[in-house]
Design goal:
Number of domains of chain B: 1
Oligomer: heterodimer
Helix content of chain B: 25-40%
Number of domains of chain A: 2
CATH architecture of the largest domain in chain A: Orthogonal Bundle
CATH topology of chain B: Rossmann fold
Largest sheet of chain A: 5 strands, mixed
Structural class of chain A: alpha+beta
Distance between the termini of chain A: 31 Å
Order of helices and strands of chain B: HEEHEEHEHEHE
CATH class of chain B: Alpha Beta
Chain lengths: 495, 169
């Protein structure tokens, strides 16, 4: 077993430890001690670089921990850790889909992202065995993959009695684009562009996480101004998405006024993004080594003006939401995520924080400049739709205050340094708190800065299973509201 | 309640006057006039095109004043608007949606991915755009195309009628 840790990097990048287990049983015992010490499961993926490995990522008080297990040469197996960390189930099934390696001990033998089209399976085998509920008056409602609105595709299977949901099961993978196959042996620029399109609403979070991973791998230190501006972009992305979600949540509860007002605030923000950064969703602004462009003084004053306007407008809308009896009636007690479950699974992001989980990368393991300009954690304990609305309001408020400080104290200077060449195979990880939760990127670079392999982890891998646990007991008609309050990404999950 | 009314009064009318139809948008090809009912299908997009479609439906652009509206059922639609590179997993659902539409019907590809596969072009899991399923599809490129581009393109799709709505409505 080998452990690698570099102290100097810790000053600059969020801390990470990599452990390579020499056997499956060592991997399992390491995972068990991780569980016993209160570690949270983040992600699991397979790779051929530098050898056949399954990598599991955890988070604990010290930071990120990558645990690598070799895949048995003859049997092509690796031990399943789903009995320790339930969230590992779908990632392990995905590894089996793509590589054929068997997670030993995993009870669920169904495929996950594989829909049976790649291996030319006969149509009969393409039927996915949903778990059914039997009994008098129980009926099944299939929904999707094409939904009624302008939404991403995915399938939901409801088992219902009367108006009440007994069970909801998801079938995802419809937006699977083969991103991992596409990025292998491509130059860093191509992969950086691709990373902004893993989940379009989180372009900054992904591109920053990828940049961080590549900068760590090549030991490149971007200028301070670039890091400050990346934080500005990330918070603007967060605010835009939260504004959109708050409007949509009001609308789903029958309050069209909310959609109009928040939609307007979001559109104003997007237009100024376009004006200052030449892209409404800030895509391709963050590049490995820094930023694509350096905004001038006039641009900064536009951004500051946005902060002032939003502080005023959002506060008024919050009062209107809080005072609206009908709205609060739909929000409160709907879609409750038990804080005990959230704690057990280690759920972060808006959803985790609305169920009492004090987890926020910007606070726990702050990257520059979050270690300089601190940001408080927005928290609620109720765990219902209303709590997730409140956390979003709080986060907008915190982000605006943070933006004000950062934009005022913005250091001068260049915003880009060239990415250094890595001599041989080099690995790096990047970890950024996007608007949904933690985005994790692992990258393996070859000589000449060619990407040998990379993995993108979306927080939706945690949100989708949590949603399945939250919906039962609620009315079918409340599902869109609960789903919107989680707002998981289909594209980020399906890769 | 008074706060809501006050806010509505203070906000006023947000809808902007219509701009001139972009010369780059596809030529009129729909045998319908005055109104356009659209069924959107996400065939594997990264969700940025959806964000722009949402923005388009907002108050600034108000496409409904031009009779442009998004419908839930393909049975009600004149136009199938497709985003995303068409993943293998969405191919069947896309064809089924098209089959469910009544004649006359047309298909429109929105965004670089739907036009030619975009950044996902060449992946074995995608069909590199809508053309692979419906050859000769009209296209609106962009990554993602802005609501202004979308609105002016959509306005130009249906047959022009004399006595069209005044531009300042």
């Amino acid at each position: 077993m080998t452990e690698e840790k570099n102290m100097q990097d810790d000053l600059f990048f969020p801390p990470v430890r990599t452990t390579s287990a020499t056997s499956g049983s060592e991997y399992l015992s390491e995972a068990t001690s991780m569980k016993n010490l209160g570690g949270r499961f983040l992600a699991l993926w397979s790779t051929d670089h530098p050898g056949r490995f399954v990598c599991a990522a955890f988070s604990d008080a010290e930071g990120l921990r990558i645990l690598r297990a070799p895949v048995a040469e003859t049997s092509r197996t690796f031990p399943s850790i789903t009995h320790l960390f339930p969230l590992a189930s779908r990632p392990e099934r995905t590894v089996r889909d793509f590589t054929g390696w068997t997670p030993e001990g995993l009870a669920d033998t169904r495929p996950w992202l594989d829909h049976g089209f790649w291996k030319n399976a006969p149509a009969g085998e393409r039927d996915y065995p949903f778990v059914r509920v039997e009994g008098e008056g129980v009926h099944e409602i299939p929904v999707g993959p094409v939904h009624a609105g302008i939404i991403e595709p995915g399938h939901f299977r409801f088992q219902v009695v009367g108006e009440k949901v007994l069970r909801m099961e998801e079938r995802l993978g419809y937006t699977h684009k083969g991103i991992r196959a596409l990025l292998r042996n491509r130059p860093v620029e191509d992969v950086a562009r691709l990373s902004g399109r893993v989940s379009g609403d989180s372009a900054v979070a992904y591109q920053w996480a990828l940049a961080q991973a590549m900068e760590r791998a090549t030991r490149t230190f971007p200028p301070e101004r670039a890091l400050y501006l990346r934080a500005v972009l990330l918070e603007r992305e967060r605010i835009a998405n939260h504004l959109g979600d708050l409007g949509a949540l009001g609308n789903d509860a029958g309050f069209g006024f909310g959609l109009v007002q928040f939609g307007r605030l979001k559109e104003d923000l997007l237009r100024n993004n376009d004006r200052v950064f030449a892209h409404r969703y800030l895509m391709d602004m963050v590049v490995p080594g820094g930023l694509r462009e350096n905004p001038g003084k006039e641009d900064i004053s536009i951004l500051l003006e946005d902060v002032r306007r939003l502080q005023r407008d959002v506060q008024l809308l919050k009062i209107i939401y809080d005072e609206h009896g009908g709205l609060q009636d739909r929000f409160s007690g709907t879609g409750v995520l038990d804080p005990m479950l959230a704690g057990d699974w280690g759920l972060g992001g808006v959803v985790g924080r609305a169920s009492g989980q004090m987890l926020d990368l910007r606070h726990d393991h702050p990257a520059w400049p979050y270690n300089r300009e601190r940001i408080p954690v927005a928290l609620s304990r109720r765990g219902d739709v209303g709590a997730r609305v409140q956390v979003r309001f709080q986060e907008i408020r915190h982000s605006l205050a943070f933006l004000h400080t950062v934009l005022t104290l913005l250091p001068e200077g260049p915003v880009r340094t060239p990415l250094r060449e890595c001599g041989s195979l080099a690995e790096g990880t990047g970890r950024i708190e996007g608007f949904r939760g933690e985005v994790l990127v692992w990258v393996c670079l070859e000589k000449g800065n060619i990407v040998a392999d990379a993995y993108f982890h979306d927080p939706s891998w945690h949100l989708w299973p949590a949603l399945e646990r939250v919906v039962p007991g609620n009315l079918v008609a409340d599902f869109p509201l609960i789903n919107k309050s989680f707002n998981p990404s289909y594209s980020g999950h399906d890769l | 309640m008074y706060r809501i009314i006050l806010k509505i009064l203070k906000t006023g009318l947000l809808t902007e006057p219509l701009s001139v139809t972009s010369p780059e948008s596809p030529a009129p090809f729909l045998p319908v006039a005055k109104s356009l009912s659209i069924r959107h299908v996400d065939a594997g997009s990264c969700n940025a095109c959806e964000l722009e479609l949402h923005a388009l439906s907002g108050s600034y652009y108000a496409p409904e004043r031009q009779g442009i509206r998004f419908v839930s059922s393909p049975r009600h639609a004149d136009l199938l608007l497709v985003t995303g590179p068409v993943t293998c997993h969405m191919e069947q659902a896309l064809k089924d949606t098209h089959d469910a539409m009544a004649f006359p019907k047309a298909v429109l590809a929105v965004g670089d991915c739907a036009c030619n596969g975009g950044v996902f072009r060449g992946s074995p899991a995608v069909r590199n755009g809508v053309d692979a399923i419906f050859p000769g599809t009209a296209k609106i490129p962009g990554c993602p195309p802005s609501p202004n581009i979308l609105l002016s393109a959509l306005r130009g799709l249906s047959r022009p009628v004399s006595g069209d709505l005044p531009a300042s409505s």
